[in-house]
Amino acid sequence: MCTPKLISRKGFLEAALALAATLLLSCTPAFARAATVTEVAPGVFVHQGRYEVQSPENRGDMSNASFVVGSEAVAVIDTSGSEVMGEDLREAIRAVTDKPIKYVINTHMHPDHVLGNAAFKQDNPTFVGHYKLARALGTRADSYITANKQMLGDAFEGSEIILPTLLIKEPTTLDLGDRTLLLEPTPTAHTDNDLIVTDTKTNTLFLGDLLFSEHIPTIDGSIKGWLAALDDLSQRKADRVVPGHGPASMDFPQALEPEKHYLESVANDVRQAIAEGKTLAETTKTAGFSEKDTWKLFDQYHVRNVTAAFAELEWE
User: Fold this and answer.
1) Is the bond preceding 253 in cis, omega lying within 30 degrees of 0?
2) pLDDT, tens digit, 9 for 90 and up, residues 174-226
3) Predicted local distance difference test score (pLDDT) of residue 30
């Protein structure tokens, strides 16, 4: 027969407090955890961001962030949208390799791609970007910090704008040991500071936000320039492409087609509206709406795209 064990009042209180502490810890968000990554090619890893706008719940996890491992060093390509997400990415890198993180490359200026940079300051890497990136980030730094702090709340803690120290004005190679990355600045397209990265060892193309998939494209540069860039890119050969938003990797150049169709639809509809003498307000209610069911976050970004296209195309 089992005899019940008597517990003193002090022992009961200690056990209750221990249980409460355990439950509290289990309900606390894990702000230092490795990001989930996929190895899309040997030594090439990608974390896929969410199809969402910034919020405290997603901590700025909106865009794809990648890293490439050479025999001597690691290069990070975009760092997500907050310092805590950057820490998650760094943890994922350290789970794969202890090689030094030599380069942090930003494909363009938008906060969801650069605000994780702060997590890598401890590695003392070279921060790399398009030659216009420093100016663009410097100009918008205050507004980016203010807006993202408001949207992310406590998850913004530790995030900051870090300007590149290596500016890419012409095609440049970075050596990671037994593999090189080719960096190419582009004319104005998604932004005026887009940078293409190619891992030459696996023929993997990183396009940043020159390529959106599922997430609606967003224009912060030139719709004409973007369409011209897509025409040029379609002539390239690559084994795979990593978009700025979308799956971890995609077949190339097929991945470009939906985005190109969207941008052409917007451009064609805006040109027609301008030819018919319609106002901007009228045009934003109709142009490109044939694409509504094709893209996530259409309601959040599409009217902005039409507005940007109208401002550019009315002066053709």
Assistant:
1) yes
2) 999 999 999 999 999 999 999 999 999 999 999 999 999 999 999 999 999 99
3) 38
Query: What span, in angstroms and rounded, lies between the C-alpha atoms of 34 and 133?
Result: 28
At 86-102, the pLDDT tens digits run: 999 999 999 999 999 99
Length, in residues, of the chain: 316
Structure tokens at 216: 């609606």
Q: In this structure, which amino acid lies at residue 90?
A: R
Alpha helix segments (H runs only) across the chain: 9-27, 83-96, 111-114, 133-152, 223-233, 257-275, 280-283, 298-313
Q: Are 80 and 60 in contact (CB under 8 A)?
A: yes
User: What are the beta bridge partners of residue 296?
Assistant: 215
The predicted model scores a pTM of 0.89
Give the Cα separation of 250 and 21 in Å (integer). 45
At residue 70, the 3 state secondary structure works out as: coil
Angle value at C-alpha 58, between 53 and 61, nearest 5 degrees = 75
- Residue 145: what pLDDT? 96
What is the rounded average pLDDT for all residues in the chain?
Answer: 92
| Residue 312 half-sphere exposure toward CB, CA atoms < 13 A | 19
Token readout for 157 is: 């803690």
Which residue shows structure tokens 């490359």? 105
Tokens of 99: 């090689």
